[in-house]
Q: What sequence folds into this?
């Protein structure tokens, strides 16, 4: 074996050993996630057989997504129009706006889904087997570690009129 052949084989083996850290989009299909923070829970479910998502903040919502490697895009969401506490409504509005700006995602082996936009803002969800009933609140006792999720999209302070 000549040196060029040895170098080529060694290079291929080195690349194979490094692996690809790109998340597997198939792991999103049929998965349920929860983000909790500031007293408002956000659920996000990926359909098992199509490129659709749905969930709840104050209102039920749904939309579509596309994924390519670690790149992900969400369509603007359609939602019901119920009223809720002002802080929860603001969280919902911030979340809906944030989701249309998401560019990348990461799904770790412990079930943490991190969505990141171009500005580097992120939201972290924790995967759960089942979402709580619509009227049930999610608490850390429901299997979601209190420090596992954060809603980084902070509401702007209201302007005094």
A:
């Amino acid at each position: 074996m000549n040196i060029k052949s040895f170098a080529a084989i060694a290079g291929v083996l080195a690349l194979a050993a490094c692996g690809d850290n790109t998340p597997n989009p198939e792991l999103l299909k049929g998965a349920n996630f929860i983000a909790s923070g500031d007293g408002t829970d956000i659920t996000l479910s990926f359909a098992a057989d199509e490129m659709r998502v749905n969930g709840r903040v104050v209102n039920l919502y749904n939309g579509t997504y596309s994924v390519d490697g670690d790149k992900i895009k969400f369509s603007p969401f359609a939602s019901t129009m119920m009223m809720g506490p002002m802080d929860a409504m603001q969280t919902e509005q911030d979340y809906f706006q944030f989701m249309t700006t998401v560019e990348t995602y990461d799904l770790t082996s412990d079930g943490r889904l991190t969505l990141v936009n171009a500005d580097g803002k992120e939201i972290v969800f924790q995967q759960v087997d089942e979402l709580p009933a619509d009227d049930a609140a999610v608490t850390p006792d429901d299997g979601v570690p209190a420090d596992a999720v954060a809603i980084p999209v902070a509401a702007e302070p209201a302007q005094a009129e």
User: Anything to note?
Assistant: The chain has one domain: 21-142. Confidence is low (pLDDT under 50) at residues 4-19, 135-161. Residues 3-18 form the longest helix (16 residues).
